[in-house]
Design goal:
Layout (H helix, E strand, L loop, with lengths): L44 H7 E6 L9 E6 L3 E3 L13 E8 L2 E12 L6 H11 L3 E10 L2 E12 L2 E12 L2 E10 L3 H14 L1 E2 L11 E6 L5 E6 L3 E4 L7 E10 L2 E12 L8 H14 L8 E10 L2 E14 L2 E11 L3 E10 L5 H17 L1 E2 L2
């Protein structure tokens, strides 16, 4: 049971509301300026008016792809070519601008489309790895209401060393990239131009959606009653014959007997189970997963942090474990939250990141969304 599919597909992709935990990625408050990544006032108003243009373009005549990209007026726009076979899961070029005095200095804007909801930071990590780009500075910024993941990277192009500033913005099922790059020895000269493009290069037409796919709502009329949201690509299996005081559901992708991802969602009533707390909730989830056929011998904890939720006043814990399933590496992600009424648990089983990165990104995001959207009925 629970034999994970293995696929080679890579889908290139905690700003949490009511569900916050410290992460390893830079947060908005951590953003710092450097010579590689200038921020703040880049140019005077006089310079912007005299030397720059905020050019708008409608690539391929598709108004849903209308963009704006700031650059120096003397720079040259190069016509972009739509690939013969368009696969919007791959990067589609939207704009390309070069400095005619240094043609190897390039500004580009591209877009890709997601089939499944993933976390932007995970997608960025996968993209940079696939392009063999080494990020040495970066962070998350909010600009004009857009949440931008931003990195300065080193890489090679035709054996030549280059540095680029790459910014990423997710709008529903689309991810936009703005890339300003130059040979390593020229990068600092153009760092401010690249910074301006990274922050202000943007789509003119937004989808108005938060997620790459439709979200469904699971409502359970138990005691306590609760609801949560999950991506439409997942299915729900209600668990019968559970102990008194427990509501149990499984969320899964693919075949339930051979899922590509599995999330066990459990609500324990503290009125009927007054001894239940965070530690017992975690132990109960592990015991149940082991009873379902998972061998938990030899698993090791690789991450642990405090979780907070405005809907679960007594807070909670998040833990991540590494293990083995039939010889394949897997991860167990555990979230437990508690209030005076209940203890909530979400236990994710997913192929390890290096085993199937696409599945790992999709599964982790669904688990995250379950925790973000969980509500106790009042």
């Amino acid at each position: 049971m629970y034999e994970f599919f293995r696929t080679g597909t890579l889908l290139l992709t905690f700003a949490l509301i009511g569900f916050v935990a410290s992460r390893g990625h830079a947060q908005e408050s951590d953003v710092q300026e450097s010579r590689w990544r200038p921020l703040g006032t880049l140019f005077s108003q006089e310079e912007l008016e005299s030397d720059f243009e905020f050019r708008r373009s409608v690539p391929y005549g598709d108004r849903s792809l209308k963009i704006r990209l700031p650059c120096r007026k003397k720079w040259t726009w190069v016509k972009v070519q739509l690939p013969t076979e368009v696969d919007r899961r791959r990067l589609v070029p939207l704009a390309r601008v070069i400095d005619p005095e240094a043609p190897e200095v390039v500004l580009e804007m591209k877009v890709t489309e997601l089939e499944r909801e993933v976390r932007l930071e995970d997608w960025v990590d996968a993209f940079l790895d696939s392009q063999k780009m080494l990020a040495f500075e970066g962070g998350v910024e909010i600009f004009e209401g857009r949440r931008i993941v931003d990195a300065v990277v080193r890489y090679r192009l035709k054996e030549k060393k280059r540095i680029g500033r790459v910014s990423f913005f997710k709008d529903g099922h689309r991810i936009y990239l703005v890339v300003g790059s130059a040979p390593e020895e020229l990068y600092e000269k153009y760092a401010k131009e690249f910074a301006l493009a990274a922050l202000q290069g943007a789509p003119e037409v937004l989808t108005g959606k938060l997620y790459a796919e439709e979200m469904k709502t699971l409502k359970v009329a138990g005691r306590p009653a609760f609801s949560l949201k999950y991506p439409a690509s997942w299915q729900v299996e209600s668990m019968p014959d559970v102990p008194m005081g427990v509501d149990a559901n499984d969320l899964f992708r693919g075949d339930y007997e051979k899922p590509e991802g599995l999330i066990r969602v459990r609500i324990y009533s503290r009125r009927k189970l007054p001894e239940m707390d965070l530690e017992k909730g975690i132990w109960s989830l592990f015991t149940e997963v082991e009873s379902a056929g998972f061998d938990l011998e030899g698993i090791r904890r690789i991450e642990s942090m405090t979780a907070e939720s405005e809907f679960f006043s007594e807070g909670g814990e998040m833990q991540i474990y590494r293990g083995d399933l039939d010889g394949d590496p897997v991860e167990f992600h555990v979230l437990v939250l508690q209030s005076s009424n209940s203890v909530f648990g979400a236990f994710l089983v997913t192929p390890a990141r290096e085993m199937n990165r696409s599945a790992w990104m999709i599964n982790r995001r669904a688990w995250e969304l379950v925790g973000m959207t969980l509500r106790e009925a009042r």
